[in-house]
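To whoever picks this up:

The nightly regression suite flagged Carboxypeptidase C (Cathepsin A) as changed. Nothing in the input moved, so I suspect the structure step. Input below, exactly as stored in the fixture:
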Amino acid sequence: MKRSALFLISIFAIAQGYAQNKPIPKEVPAAKEEKQAASARILNPDQFVVTENAVTVKGTRIPYRTTAGTIPVWDDDGKVIAGVFYTYYERSDVKDKTARPLVISFNGGPGSASVWMHIAYTGPRLLNIDDEGYPVQPYGYKENPYSILDVADIVYVDPVNTGFSRIVDKNTPVSKFFGTRADIKYLGEWINTFVNRSNRWASPKYLIGESYGTTRVSGLALELQNTHWMYLNGVILVSPTELDIERSGPVSGANRLPYFAATAWYHKKLEPSLQQKDLTDMLPEVEEFTVNELLPALSKGGFLEEAKKKELAKKIARYSGISENVIYRNNLVLPVNQFWKELLRDKGYTVGRLDSRYLGVDRSDGNESPDFNAELTSWLHSFTPPINMYLRDELRYKTDLKYNMFGPVHPWDRTQDRTGENLRQAMAQNPWLKVMIQSGYYDGACDYFNAKYSMWNIDPSGKLKDRLSFVGYRSGHMMYLRKADLETSNEDIRKFIRASLPKPGEPAKY
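Regenerated output under the current build:
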């Protein structure tokens, strides 16, 4: 019995030793066993572990160092109020980091960890999925031959209450973290600390965000400039949100049609004259109709002539794969929830919200919206085992904390979202700053045409348009889950980074 107790105590000590990066004691007094176990479930806000590894990218073996740990968030009085978990990859055969780009990566939600782009997109490890992004067993991970680690170092950041990040001062109001402006403010401070500790002030810097992460990095671009005097070379927006760019009313109703057309094309629900075209040959026709015909018509509201309304219902049905009667009954604007239910209703399936290639099965075919998001359940199935295995086994970050794929961050205060304008100001103030948008054609939450609309309307003057670019992919919200797009989207990031690096001695000026 005594020997068993000592064995358990040693296990707890080992867990703590890894997470704290401290020497492991040989024995722990039996009276401390319960306390030791409990402390493994409490975040140390300032600690890390380091490992060494390598990955082959584009035929070259690249050695790298990984730092996994936490850096504190302090209040105005210097008191630690939270710890933010991060995973930092730096190429270890590059000694001079002066010209080595640094990419700071966020996912979205709000409330999502950085897991998605970390082990499925840009990082050196890739989760086990099939070539289209569906779960396979056994769960696990492998080398990512498309990682951008050949051209840039990367840090993946988990905002408070996501991943292993936690509030450590329970008296701190959650409003310090959970809101558009609060999120930008504390993460700006955190990035400043990270850059100081990792000695990366001289490096060209990039922000990449996905989904709500695009709201975050758009705001951070200006926050880093104005508050921390830290200037960026680039911002990459993956499946961007609306960025507080106005599009209510007719614009909102019209802009969803190109996404409908892309999804209908994928599921072979368009008429032959459209279906026989390639996706990217078909979509320009739909986009042209959306901007030049549908949007002006919807602006007339209930005063649109009846004959014109019937004519448009027929055209929308042709482009969306939805019956003319359904379109007409919805006054030419079909709700997206109804589209996800209606498109394959005759086959007994729904289509996914974030990626309409995924299919779901409902209790009843008669409802007007799906019972669940088919793609999200599939992704949680794919990602949760590998990230927990990877962080604890390969990176040796030992803790009993739960890794929050999605964490409690609500209510979220969105009242101070001016992030589209923040990004415009950052670009205007920094002649070096370039922006690239990446979108999947089958994303119904942050659809590709609204991403284009954001790009067109970030800067009404048009003076910055040469520094804004868009790339589309034949998948959904996480376009990189499709193997063919994983390769091309990473290559697009490489090209973007290289194109946004100024020549030595080139000044930042107009």
